[in-house]
Write a structure and sequence with these properties.
alpha/beta, 37% helix, binds 1,3,4-trihydroxy-5-OXO-cyclohexanecarboxylic acid, Rossmann fold, 5 helices, globular, five-stranded parallel beta sheet
């Protein structure tokens, strides 16, 4: 089972960027925690982070034969039709993750262009959201449900 963990713009600054909102963990630390959990579950995870919308689209397309996708599209969540179209095109089950509770923040963060094409969304649980997303995808995939 192969699961891609995709992180969008400014998430490379985690640990330094607004820690009260996004947590104290760096992206490398989150990656280690998720990787440890993936090892226990016996699944392969790959992390990709980019500040560029097209690079995120490329990564989604390049992994179209993978089993699942965890995506924190960061600010592109609220704007990107290209990322939503890519997710819809590849039909890989995707869980949308946000570290912060986007519904408790500014109004422009309440709308997600990608929610429509994701299996579901996790928001507000910090790095634990990635681990929960992994559990949910592995649960779904091991039940043989891929759509
Ligand atoms: C975020 C929420 C977005 O609104 C914001 O632009 C981010 C991070 C989150 O993980 O809480 O960069 O996706």
């Amino acid at each position: 089972m192969r699961i891609l963990v995709l992180n969008g713009p400014n998430l490379n600054l985690l640990g330094h960027r607004m820690p009260a909102v996004y947590g104290r963990e760096t992206l490398d630390e989150i990656q280690l925690l998720v990787r440890g959990h993936a090892d226990r579950l016996g699944v392969e995870v790959k992390f990709v982070q980019s500040n560029h919308e097209g690079a995120l689209v490329d990564a989604i397309q390049q992994h179209r034969d993978w089993d699942g996708l965890i995506i924190n599209a960061a600010a592109y969540t609220h704007t990107s039709l290209a990322i939503a179209d890519a997710l819809e095109a590849v039909q890989v089950p995707a869980v949308e993750v946000h570290l912060s509770n986007i519904y408790a923040r500014e109004r422009f963060r309440h709308r997600s262009t990608i929610a429509r094409v994701c299996w579901g969304q996790i928001a507000g649980f910090g790095y634990r959201g990635y681990i929960a997303a992994l559990d949910l995808l592995v649960g779904r995939l091991s039940e043989g449900e891929t759509q």
